[in-house]
Amino acid sequence: MKVVLWICLISMWQFPCCLGAQDCLKLHNLTSAEVETVAPSTPVSEVPLAVKCYSRCMIDEYFGEDGKIDLQRVGSRGTEREHTFLAHCKQQFDGVTDLDRCDYPYLMLQCLFTGKASGTIVS
Description:
The protein has 123 residues and is mostly helical. It has one domain (6-118): Recoverin, domain 1. The chain contains seven helices and no strands. The chain has helices at residues 6-14, 21-27, 32-36, 49-59, 71-74, 80-93, 103-118. Helix 2 packs antiparallel against helix 4 (49-59), helix 4 (49-59) crosses helix 7 (103-118) and helix 6 crosses helix 7. Mean pLDDT is 81; it is low at 1-9 and 11-18.
């Protein structure tokens, strides 16, 4: 099944932010079609840098001083179950030190999307 703009959809619904999808696309010189070609299961190493940085742009206001997602900044957005998935994703990726600046947000959204799609926490 083709997932259309999964990064955009999950981040805009889950994490409305100051920069909109169109602004982030323009900032990273991308089109919606280019983002749509990346399936949620694509390994981070195979995702174009611009797409990974687009994902960061979409959720940038939720990053703390440490460069990681801050659950307090996410606040009450999303359901309790989604917060559980997000907390699990943080456990999985917050300690990984060899990630590029745009790898982490992509992996966080990918993990959250996978958890929501499957209904289970995936390691």
